[in-house]
């Protein structure tokens, strides 16, 4: 079958011709510097945990800095899962808004204020973490209690991301006013949908912080309710994973096809999947609380069903992105049912990173469905299976994709060339191999009943059958350390490399769609119906149970700090 080509429209060409100003490059770059620094520190701590599983205790040598396994685990989780992701995503959404629309931010001061707020929050949260005053892991469940500065700092990071989100929305609105009747460019629209989803999602954590954790940590209230806090947390905690994932999807739909030499297979399906995420990302939080007492089964069951619904847009994504890739590969001469895969540009580190991220995400997605199945969840909940799952998702689908994006983005922002392309390709493969070993072993350990968040190397109850898997966790973790070091080497060398002439600097890849986006139905370009539907669904799926928990609030976790580590 041949698919008819369509030339880029004049408006598409004009938008893509927009050159970032010096301020814009520095502003986006500022987000990336913080993100990559957080990734570097966070991921260097990861192997300490992985090696601990084989009884290699490197923590003892770091005693002055890291007081315990749990302080390391907190830093690892917060820096990698919260800081690296959030700063990268907000920086990247600045880029997709500006370049997607082909115009500057309408209110750059708003974004500046947002960014500064995020930085202030980050510093406030980092200090107590480093001082062992916030060893509460990245989920900060009470009764574990952190210093007030940790809670206030994280709150400010979220508030800063809201402010930047407002800046994106205002820019899109200004563009729409000037381009009535024109479909919003996909990458810009998708970034703003993610920001909108994030604003709804973080209401849970905002209420948790403001009404529970912050007053509790200041001693204003003398006890708190761990069950209610967990419900607020997962209201935000589940959609948080899609806040991480959707920017990777922006790249998979909106950039990767271009990098592979093709086009986006379906603009409509791409938009539909983003709207579906806006609709069903939030009302699924109870799938993290299947074993929590105090939440009636019927609500757990409703959220289990809705989780199957949120599985659907990822299936759409798998179909559309792979179709786009196949189209690109066949244009490059690829043939065969599967053989076309070889014709993809595997020598391009940015492409390789994202393809490998996508391949592992298929397995992460299958594991997600396992988790979501109410009865099977009882087998894997709180076991090593869960970190096995999220290292395929956030630590690979998302992180390796973001790494792949930086392979063109950092040189582009700096007017340089990527240093060590071959090392960068090898870096992605190293990550892939390390993660296959690590995450498979974690999944197996989980099935055998090994608990998560436990220094198993010290545990006295480890049966012999765990030992092989524990060793593989350490081996996988060590390979991942090598991959991180390779990434940092490539980044540092690139940043320090010489400026090159414009023709050698990578361009931002923006994939056109096969069909003219003007043919995409209008209802896939409108916020209002989707926002209303999302609000109604949220009220129905959380409202009654949340009210019940608030009315029956049980302040049973004492105010005296509970700090075991
Ligand atoms: Fe999850 C726990 C269910 C996706 C992250 N998840 C977690 C935790 C994290 C996390 C961090 O229902 C632990 C939280 C904690 O600390 O307690 N998860 C799901 C489901 C999905 C899912 C149903 N999770 C994610 C994503 C994450 C993430 C994405 C981060 C980014 N998860 C759960 C549940 C739990 C859970 C329960 C609680 C477990 C418990 O008991 O504690 C789905 O969204 C997955 C859908 C994915 C797919 C895959 C589609 C495949 C694609 C790849 C295409 C391939 C390409 C490459 C492009 C259907 C799109 C082609 C390459 C070529 C060469 C051709
Ligand atoms: Cu979830």
Keywords:
565 residues; mainly alpha; Cytochrome C Oxidase, Chain A; two-stranded antiparallel sheet; 2 strands; 1% strand; globular; binds heme-as; binds copper (II) ion
What features would you describe in this structure?
This protein has 565 residues and is mostly helical. It has a single domain (18-551), classed as Cytochrome C Oxidase, Chain A (Up-down Bundle). It has 17 helices and two strands. A two-stranded antiparallel ribbon has the order 1-2. α10 runs antiparallel to α11 (297-331) and α12 packs parallel to α15. The longest helix has 35 residues, at 297-331. The radius of gyration is 23 Å and the shape is globular. The N and C termini lie far apart (63 Å). The relative contact order is 0.12. Bound molecules: heme-as (HAS) and copper (II) ion (CU). Heme-as is lined by residues 139, 241, 244-245, 252, 287-288, 307, 310-311, 314-315, 317-318, 321-322, 325, 341, 355, 358-359, 361-362, 365, 368-369, 371-372, 377, 381, 386, 389-390, 393-394, 398.
Kindly provide the name of the CATH class. Mainly Alpha
Number of domains: 1
Q: If classified by CATH, what would the architecture be?
A: Up-down Bundle
Shape designation: globular
Sketch the major β-sheet.
2 strands, antiparallel
Radius of gyration: 23 Å
CATH topology: Cytochrome C Oxidase, Chain A
Task: Provide the fold topology.
Blueprint: H1 10-16, H2 22-52, H3 69-101, H4 108-130, H5 148-178, H6 186-201, H7 203-217, E1 223-224, H8 226-254, H9 256-259, H10 267-280, H11 297-331, H12 349-372, H13 374-380, H14 385-414, H15 421-447, H16 464-496, H17 527-551, E2 557-558
Antiparallel strand pairs: 1-2
Bound molecules: heme-as and copper (II) ion (CU).
